[in-house]
């Protein structure tokens, strides 16, 4: 699998918690992906000069730092753990992607109200993220022994390997199933788009920017709504101020209704029922909230 230098390369997780949403994001950006290569280590965008490298998530920072892939999608937890072990930052975090949210937490076999960080002094803590945990402990002046495990960290207390663990948690169900409770937050994470800091040559750089713009559009669209409403002209300022994340709404006169206008705006933050109630209370009527299919900022 030697990379085709005429194409851009993006590393994503081959199979796991980030793979499906990484692919969906790229599809949302208009890429038509097809499997290529016998062992499915790569995929190709048919309508954009981009090859996907399908790898283990732990390898993604290395690929991007070395410039083998110009871009990658990876969890901030994996990225930061990698970066803490490198003398120089060779990766740039471009964009938070809004999926793969989880937290690296210290957990143990006791209840949260019995716990204080000081109880970790002199203890053994098992984790797959020794650098993130090490930094956390050091910043708080806690002297504990970090035991590095590749997987099945949640079994460590039962096996007598460590008294506590530090592992990724999203719902807490795995911890619970192992008789453990989350006790302290070490690092909050979500999937991010990353880019190599190695120089990307001209044509490739342009392609990378074009892809970034499209992906930004997909992320912005996920939250954004198009709002249309009627408003009394004299309350326009008040109503505009309520519209979440809207810049410079369009205001159009309403034929046959002097003193009233139609307002149209793209809201780049979530629009809740409560927002609509506030708009109505400020005199707005005929309020429509519509999804946006595509957007380029
Ligand atoms: P690989 O074979 O690629 O090394 P993995 O087992 O290391 O896979 P996954 O469990 O698929 O990794 O998790 C990938 C990423 O998904 C994590 O690094 C993290 O950023 C994110 N993630 C989101 N929720 C969770 C969770 N509850 N537990 C673990 N990871 C999560
Ligand atoms: Mg992994």
UniProtKB/TrEMBL annotation:
Its EC number is 2.4.2.17. Its main location: cytoplasm. Pathway: Amino-acid biosynthesis; L-histidine biosynthesis; L-histidine from 5-phospho-alpha-D-ribose 1-diphosphate: step 1/9. It is an enzyme of class 2 (transferase). Pfam families: HisG, HisG_C. Residues 223-294 form the Histidine biosynthesis HisG C-terminal domain. Keywords: Amino-acid biosynthesis, ATP-binding, Cytoplasm, Glycosyltransferase, Histidine biosynthesis, Magnesium, Metal-binding, Nucleotide-binding, Transferase. Feedback inhibited by histidine. Its cofactor is Mg(2+). It catalyses: 1-(5-phospho-beta-D-ribosyl)-ATP + diphosphate = 5-phospho-alpha-D-ribose 1-diphosphate + ATP. It is found in: Cytoplasm. GO terms for cellular component: cytoplasm. One of its GO terms (molecular function) is ATP phosphoribosyltransferase activity. GO terms for biological process: L-histidine biosynthetic process. Residues 56-217 form the ATP phosphoribosyltransferase catalytic domain. Catalyzes the condensation of ATP and 5-phosphoribose 1-diphosphate to form N'-(5'-phosphoribosyl)-ATP (PR-ATP). Has a crucial role in the pathway because the rate of histidine biosynthesis seems to be controlled primarily by regulation of HisG enzymatic activity. Belongs to the ATP phosphoribosyltransferase family. Long subfamily. This is ATP phosphoribosyltransferase. The gene is hisG.
């Amino acid at each position: 699998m030697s990379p085709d230098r005429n194409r851009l390369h993006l590393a994503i997780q081959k199979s796991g918690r980030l793979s499906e949403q990484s692919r969906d994001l790229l599809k949302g950006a208009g890429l038509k992906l097809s499997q290529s290569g016998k062992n499915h280590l790569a995929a190709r965008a048919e309508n954009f000069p981009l090859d996907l490298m399908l790898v283990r998530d732990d390898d993604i920072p290395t690929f991007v730092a070395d410039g083998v892939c110009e871009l990658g999608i990876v969890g901030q937890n994996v990225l930061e753990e990698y970066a803490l072990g490198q003398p120089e930052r060779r990766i740039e975090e471009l964009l938070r992607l809004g999926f793969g949210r989880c937290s690296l937490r210290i957990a143990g076999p006791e209840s949260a109200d019995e716990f204080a960080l000081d109880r970790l002094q002199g203890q053994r803590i098992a984790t797959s993220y020794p650098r993130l945990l090490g930094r956390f402990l050091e910043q708080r002046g806690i002297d504990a022994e970090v035991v590095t495990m590749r997987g099945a960290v949640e079994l460590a207390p039962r096996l007598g390997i460590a008294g506590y663990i530090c592992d990724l948690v999203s719902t807490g169900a795995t911890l619970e199933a192992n008789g453990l409770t989350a006790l302290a937050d070490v690092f909050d994470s979500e999937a991010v788009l990353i880019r190599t800091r190695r120089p990307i040559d001209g044509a490739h750089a342009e392609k990378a920017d074009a892809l970034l713009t499209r992906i930004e559009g997909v992320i912005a669209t996920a939250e954004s709504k198009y709002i249309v409403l009627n408003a009394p002209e004299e309350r326009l300022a008040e109503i505009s101020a309520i519209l979440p994340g809207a810049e410079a709404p369009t205001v159009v006169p309403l034929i046959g209704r002097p003193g009233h206008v139609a307002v149209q705006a793209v809201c780049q933050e979530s629009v809740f029922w409560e927002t609509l109630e506030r708009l109505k209370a400020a005199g707005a009527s005929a309020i429509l909230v519509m999804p946006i299919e595509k957007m380029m900022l």
